[in-house]
């Protein structure tokens, strides 16, 4: 049984097995959630990302994929980095956004994580409309077969929290 929970707050303050990062394909950090995770998690995470770049992801991590690193100083065992699609009004990229959630849960399962915190992937800098981002996120995780016991969506503000709450019902 997997439970979906919602929290309004800062994902870097969560105590879970895995924290999902809305990264970019470089894996070398950025703003938004990515910046916050690297700031609070410390240099170990970036060092692990650099090693991944050097070993397996020379061309970067593809959109819709996910990979785990140490969580550094965060209160978690892993950070799972996933790359959301940039929103496009002219092209339907929702399969790629759904893939971020599926792949992140697959990586969580591979590592044995039982509690996983997700941000609203692509709904910040990447421009995805919040209601649609919430619908895709919730529908996708509900359809996944996983050993994860708690999927916690951590929403930064009231608007995001409301959008997810309407989907979870
Ligand atoms: N905790 C929870 N949610 C947060 C936090 C936080 N600490 N900070 C921001 N959010 P974004 P994206 C919310 O932009 O759209 C980065 O530069 C935010 O309000 O972090 O996937 C990466 O390096 C929004 O609702 O991710 C990429 O280049 C949601 O998290 C790019 O941004 C996602 O916003 C990825 O863009």
Automatic annotation (TrEMBL):
<dbReference type="InterPro" id="IPR043472">
    <property type="entry name" value="Macro_dom-like"/>
</dbReference>
<protein>
    <submittedName>
        <fullName>Macro domain-containing protein</fullName>
    </submittedName>
</protein>
<feature type="domain" description="Macro">
    <location>
        <begin position="1"/>
        <end position="169"/>
    </location>
</feature>
<dbReference type="InterPro" id="IPR002589">
    <property type="entry name" value="Macro_dom"/>
</dbReference>
<dbReference type="Pfam" id="PF01661">
    <property type="entry name" value="Macro"/>
</dbReference>
């Amino acid at each position: 049984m997997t439970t979906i929970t919602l929290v309004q707050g800062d994902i870097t303050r969560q105590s879970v097995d895995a924290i999902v990062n809305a990264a970019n394909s470089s894996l070398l950090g950025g703003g938004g959630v990515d910046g916050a995770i690297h700031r609070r998690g410390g240099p170990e995470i970036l060092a692990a990302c650099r090693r991944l770049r050097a070993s397996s992801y020379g061309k970067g991590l593809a959109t819709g994929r996910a990979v785990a690193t140490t969580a550094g100083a965060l209160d978690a065992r892993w950070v799972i980095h996933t790359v959301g699609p940039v929103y496009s009004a002219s092209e339907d990229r929702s399969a790629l956004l759904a893939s971020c959630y599926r792949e992140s849960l697959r990586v969580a399962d591979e590592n044995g994580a039982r509690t996983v915190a997700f941000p609203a992937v692509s709904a910040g800098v990447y421009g995805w409309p919040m209601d649609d981002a919430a619908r895709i996120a919730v529908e996708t995780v509900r359809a996944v077969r996983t050993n994860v016991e708690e999927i916690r969506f951590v929403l930064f503000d009231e608007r995001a929290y409301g959008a997810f709450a309407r989907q979870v019902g």
